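[stage:ingest] chain + small molecule (phosphoric acid mono(formamide)ester)
[stage:ingest] validated
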Amino acid sequence: MDLKGRNFLTLKDFTPEEIIYLVDLAAEYKDKKKKGILHDNLRGKNIVLIFEKTSTRTRCSFEVAAHDLGMGTTYLDLSGSQIGKKESIADTARVLGKMYEGIEYRGYEQAIVEELAKYAGVPVWNGLTNEYHPTQMLADMLTIREHFGHLKDIRLTYMGDARYNMGNSLMIVCAKLGMHFTACTTKEYFPEEALVAQCREYAAQSGATITLTEDVDAGTKEADVIYTDVWVSMGEPEEVWEERITKLSPYKVTKSVMDNAGENAVFLHCLPAFHDLKTKIGKEQGEKYGFTELEVTDEVFGSAQSLVFEEAENRMHTIKAVIAATLGAV
Ligand code: CP
Ligand code: NVA
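[stage:predict] done
[stage:export] tokens:
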């Protein structure tokens, strides 16, 4: 398997074998890290991390992964760079491509990360766009495989805004890997038809299924993985909160949802999560609409079924695999 020089923009561009290869490689790096075996064979190389939206996990994962591989990192955001205000994405790409071996980008439209990749001349990694969050998918697949021992035929139900980066990306990865994906949400929030059709084509090859349902009982019954995400994503306007809370409240992940799922079901969330009112936004919205928790109850979030912190750790191991494989270090 040779992924040297490849961009990592969406899992639509990767075969099932390539995706599994990256998950396997991440598991190897995780094992090495736990055993204290150094793997810094990218010494002398550097990467740059562009964040037009905020981040804890993705930024830290790229930084720790790069440092473990022996590399240097530079963090750029809008306030401390020329990006957007004085310099186009194409010119930024051409400059950074001359100084760095790879570029991570988190921001708005997928078209921006594609533009960056077109002009950079070095691998570009998507650290989240409105449409996709591909590095999160590798972490989720590693976490599911660690727990169940396999990925094929796993039944994963996503509850929430399934038209956005997380719903789209989970549907793609499940379709590619022969898993059973259900979007369980109000029909206005189903993924776009064109993407559903494309995923059904992947599914025809892999044995996966794609189900879209508004019915919580049917959509979560016997699921192996119940997955949710924030109801309002980064960069969306404040005004959408009211509609999201109204429409998505029936799709909150509660104990009764988990009880309806399979006997060994687990709960995943890409994080950050509004499972209590201990955050500024959670408190504001919770108090405004009379909730003490939003997309998931505190009970489920803190339960033994919740693997969210293992999942968060796996961001780092999987991002390391993406960096190493695309830079040809393996
Ligand atoms: N899951 C995730 O991407 O987290 P951050 O926004 O903290 O990077
Ligand atoms: N849908 C969320 C995912 C965060 C990791 C967002 O875009 O804000």
